[in-house]
Amino acid sequence: MLDLIVPEWPAPSHVRALSTTRGGGHSAGRYASFNLAAHVGDDPRAVAANRALLCSRMPAAPLWLKQVHGTRCIGIDATAADVEADASFARVPGQACAVMTADCLPLLLCDEAGTVVAAAHAGWRGLAAGVVEATVAAMSVPGARILAWLGPAIGPAAFEVGDEVRAAFVDADAAAAAAFAATADGKWLCDLYALARRRLARLGVGRVYGGGYCTHGDGKRFFSYRRDGATGRMASLIWLDA
After folding, report:
1. Which three-class secondary structure state does DSSP give residue 45?
2. What percent of the chain has pLDDT over 70?
3. Can you name the residues that pair with 150 across neighbouring β-strands?
């Protein structure tokens, strides 16, 4: 049986969203069992079966992006599959936005009226470069009218980074220092959730939900690239019901 996470947030009833976990699929070994990525070395037949199982829960197949830790946000109705981007938005019912992650932060958004939805892949590089800002801008809705949900990502107790990562945020925003805690070996523990919330708040997005997961710490439920190296990918998806 699929193990799915459904956001607990006050989105309009016709906005549908979910995040997958690693449970309930057809993949084996390090990809066990619900890996949705075709680029990580898994058996292509298992990936196809997993994607078909996911699609059986949705109105149509999602747009799978070629994610590159960038800031490009594309409209689904104007693109083809396998486009190089790290976020997408949709205004047409039945068109699903999707991002795949295995420690990076999946961010799902909708407006309070349910006229537009979006999904963003927000690892530290994307957050620092402005993927949140690019996605909100593409939605063309004031931040005060947007709801955001933070899906499963590596937690602040597990994400150790170097000075260059901290500098990428603090040099542009001194208050971002609150999202970093020094370690005994001269590194920093980085809170992706806090960084995303700060970026959203600066855009006027105050209604932010989720953010209580750690992919690194829960190996039974989540894939984690930092923990395991070669591993599968989970998906976070959002769409408008017809």
Report:
1. helix
2. 98
3. 107, 210
Q: What is the DSSP letter of 88?
A: E
CA–CA distance, 168 with 218 (Å, rounded to integer): 28
pLDDT the model gives residue 1: 85
What tens digit of pLDDT does each residue of 40-88 get? 999 999 999 999 999 999 999 999 999 999 999 999 975 666 799 999 9
Q: How far is CA 35 from the centre of its chain?
A: 15
Contacts for 150 with CB less than 8 Å, ≥ 6 apart? 105, 106, 107, 193, 196, 197, 208, 209, 210, 211
Contact criterion met (CB below 8 Å) for 119 and 98: yes
Instruction: From 237, 201, 242, select the one nearest 117 (Cα to Cα).
Output: 237
Distances (CA, A) of 133 to 118, 120, 126: 12, 10, 10
What's the CATH superfamily of 4-155+206-240?
CNF1/YfiH-like putative cysteine hydrolases (3.60.140.10)
Distance of CA 113 to the CA centre of its chain: 22
DSSP 117-170: EEEEEE-HHHHHHTHHHHHHHHHTS-GGGEEEEE-S---TTT-EE-HHHHHHHH
β-pairing, 87-90 with 73-75?
parallel
Q: Where are the domains of the chain?
A: 4-155+206-240
